[in-house]
Amino acid sequence: MKGTSAPPRLRKSRAGASDMSPQVTAADRSNDVLLDLDGVCAFKGTTPATERYLRHLGETTYCFRMGRRLVAWKTDVIAYIEAHRIADQESRS
Fold first, then answer.
1. What is the pLDDT along the chain (93 residues), one digit of tens a residue?
2. Using CA atoms, how far apart are residues 32 and 68, in angstroms rounded to an integer?
3. Rounded distance, CA 78 to CA 90, Å?
C-alpha cells in the first residue's frame, strides 16, 4: 500500500500547554452568593426543568458547571433579570 499515507499524528507539547489555558480575571465576589440550581429557581420563580432548557438554548449565560453541579453567582442572575427587564421596557416604547 504505497499509494496511501496515514495522516500525521498531532503532538501536544508540554511547553505550550500554559499558553492555551484561558485567561480568567478574578472578579471581586467577596459579598456575592453562589446559588445552586434550586437556589436559582427559588430566586427566579422557575422550575429546574425550565432552567435546564434555557441553558440548553444558550439563554442562561449566568449558569456554569462546578464539578457536576450547575451553579450561578447571585449578582449574575440579578444582572440577567435586569437586562431582560430593560429590553422588555424598550420593546414596549
1. 555 555 555 555 455 444 555 555 667 888 899 999 999 999 999 999 999 999 999 999 999 999 999 999 999 999 999 999 999 999 988
2. 21
3. 18
> Whose grid coordinates read 427566579?
44
Q: What predicted TM-score, i.e. pTM, was given to this entire model? A: 0.68
49/64 Cα distance (integer angstroms): 16
- Tell me the residue type at 77: V
Query: Bridge partners of 66?
Result: 69
Q: What angle do CA 75, 81, 29 make, to 5 degrees?
A: 5
Cβ proximity of 71 and 63 under 8 Å: yes
